[in-house]
């Protein structure tokens, strides 16, 4: 079976490969990247996360896909769609997510990739909306959500059950993509 792939003008969203581990571990070891996501991840944690994404893709036809630049085929992060986790307001809803290498911030890649994922979701799941959550203080991700025409739903903000209660990342905000329906 052919590898899953979506393309934008500058990016490729694709399935995960065994040789992605080193680069994705480096991304998840960067304190600047992890500042609004949580603790630095070990190599094993990243390997398990990639394996989980691969299994999720096989079972569901989507995941948080590996994200690379077309120009040099360099892995720069991830972007994609999964079903939201239990004990969150987006449980079982289409949840968009992204993570980007710090060196690539400010290039518009996240917005470009996320827009493509939203288009894919609209075509694949036409009766469902796309949702997103992030820590309350993740202003960069919140700005992307707003560029995607997502609306903050303060009544659905919550303390994330997988975050340390003492962490300044505990409080999460919930967004939903506004549609033209």
Q: What this model shows, in words?
A:
- Strand 5 (94-100), helix 4 (109-124) and strand 6 (130-135) form a beta-alpha-beta unit.
- The chain has helices at 21-28, 31-34, 43-60, 109-124, 139-147, and strands at 5-7, 11-14, 64-69, 75-83, 94-100, 130-135, 150-152, 158-159, 171-177.
- The protein is an alpha+beta fold and 181 residues long.
- The chain has one domain (5-177): Aminopeptidase (3-Layer(aba) Sandwich).
- Helix 1 crosses helix 3 (43-60).
- This is GNAT family N-acetyltransferase.
- Residues 10-151 form the N-acetyltransferase domain.
- InterPro entries: Acyl_CoA_acyltransferase, GNAT_dom, N-acetyltransferase.
From N to C, what is the helix and strand string?
A: EEHHHEEEHEHEEE
Structural class call reads alpha+beta
Nearest-angstrom radius of gyration?
15 Å
Percentage of β-strand residues: 25-35%
Q: How many strands? A: 9
Shape: globular
Organism: Parasphingorhabdus cellanae
Pfam families: Acetyltransf_3
Protein name: GNAT family N-acetyltransferase
InterPro entries: Acyl_CoA_acyltransferase (IPR016181), GNAT_dom (IPR000182), N-acetyltransferase (IPR051531)
Q: How would you summarize this macromolecular structure in one to three sentences?
A:
By secondary structure, this protein is α+β, with helices and mostly antiparallel strands. Helix content is 30%, strand content 26%. The protein has a single domain, classed as 3-Layer(aba) Sandwich (Aminopeptidase).
């Amino acid at each position: 079976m052919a590898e899953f792939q979506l393309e934008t003008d500058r990016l490729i969203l694709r399935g995960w490969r065994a040789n992605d581990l080193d680069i994705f571990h480096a991304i998840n070891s960067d304190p600047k990247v992890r500042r609004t996501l949580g603790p630095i991840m070990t190599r094993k944690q990243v390997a398990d996360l990639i394996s989980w994404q691969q299994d999720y893709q096989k079972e569901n036809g989507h995941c948080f896909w590996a994200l690379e630049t077309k120009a040099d085929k360099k892995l720069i992060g991830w972007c994609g769609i999964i079903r939201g986790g239990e004990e969150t307001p987006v449980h079982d809803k289409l949840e968009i997510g992204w993570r980007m290498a710090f060196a690539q911030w400010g290039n518009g890649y996240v917005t470009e990739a996320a827009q493509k994922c939203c288009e894919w979701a609209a075509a694949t799941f036409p009766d469902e909306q796309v949702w997103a959550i992030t820590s309350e203080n993740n202003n960069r991700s919140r700005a992307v959500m707003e560029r995607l025409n997502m609306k903050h739903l303060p009544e659905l903000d919550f303390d994330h059950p997988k975050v340390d209660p003492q962490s300044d990342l505990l409080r999460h905000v919930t967004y939903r993509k506004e549609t033209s329906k």
